[in-house]
Amino acid sequence: MASASLHSLLLKTPNNPTNSYSFKNPITLPSQNVSFITPTRSNKPFSITCATHVQDRSTTTSETQSQDRVFNFAAGPATLPENVLKKAESELYNWRGSGMSVMEMSHRGKEFVSIIEKAESDLRSLLNISSDYYVLFLQGGATTQFAAIPLNLCKMDDSVDFIVTGSWGDKAFKEAQKYCKPTVIWSGKSEKYTKVPSFNYLEQNLNAKYLHICANETIQGVEFKNYPTPINKDAILIADMSSNFCSKPVDVSKFGLIYAGAQKNVGPSGVTIVIIRKDLIGNAQDITPVMLDYKIHADNKSLYNTPPCYGIYMCGLVFEDLLNQGGLKQVEKNNIKKAELLYNAIDSSNGFYRCPVEKSVRSLMNVPFTLEKSELEAEFIKEAAKEKMVQLKGHRSVGGMRASIYNAMPYAGVEKLVALMKDFQARHG
Hints:
Blueprint: E1 2-4, E2 8-12, E3 20-28, E4 35-42, E5 47-51, E6 54-56, E7 71-72, H1 82-91, H2 110-127, E8 133-138, H3 141-153, E9 159-164, H4 167-176, E10 181-187, E11 210-214, E12 216-217, E13 222-223, E14 236-240, E15 257-261, E16 272-277, H5 294-299, H6 309-324, H7 328-347, E17 353-354, E18 366-371, H8 377-386, E19 389-390, E20 401-404, H9 411-428
Helix pairs in contact: 1-6, 2-6, 3-4, 7-9
């Protein structure tokens, strides 16, 4: 099966006369070996395209993309690795000689059991998850875990602490109010969620059962680069890692529980992954619905009821692909490279583009930015769509633009976005 090689950026100038631009004078961004071309006034239209050549599929990586696909900057459901999609396509009708699709399998049959067991094994390898933790494949999105966590780990009068660095942390806090006594010990709301607090000055509750963070805020683009420690020696750290899960190495042993919706970095929507220390289960509140009881799912190896079978299969293919790339240390290097390119373009624009997030905690996954001339934002998004770059509109609560550059976003996609940003500034700056 053939695929496209890494895109090299070319800017073409067709012959149809109109009021547009030609290109010359390459400019190289700091810390990058990528040249961009500044436009000068011309009477010819332009388009931004990527040249490709065909290579053997065995050498392809997440850096490559076929010409018939868009660059999808959606926050989730998000882009998936092309080679993973191709493999799923080849196995859709008849999974490995079984005579049926994964979508048709009994979730208790040997075929699907082999799929879910390998997915768990590969995830354990990626994150170096010890046998002290259960790995659960659940449903209901990370939002369901906002209730499941306090129901499983607290009594109604127990105290818990929240650091709120964005919209998802705030939602988790509000849901926890129904099942325990949460306290927001720090909130970035007054500063429009643009930073992470210094951990040294947090006033934690001495009796808090856990400290909850959202490791990466998808909407605001704020990411924890290191993690706080609960002051109560018996408390645990809990993290919603939905939008940076498997984007970099994480020391799982620092956490009592990690949870993540799959639809950002590791699979399609419908799968929620929970990694929980084994000694934390078995004490759910009496009102806990059976489907939210971690012990039920752990005892039944995530097969208590029919799980999201095809989604788990897809996650397994992604885990396998991440291992083939060299693991999460290499994945993190790729993500840093992409994020550097985009943030450098924003910061070197002399204020034409702006990212509101404090530089030290900018997300590698979700890059929000605005235009100095906000009235041009709709035009920018429209032009991007014409160039096959989609889903760049910012969240409705924030506005502006947002480029989600998850693991599966090829470097070429960020190159092409930055080329458009340069050209757009030259015409409207």
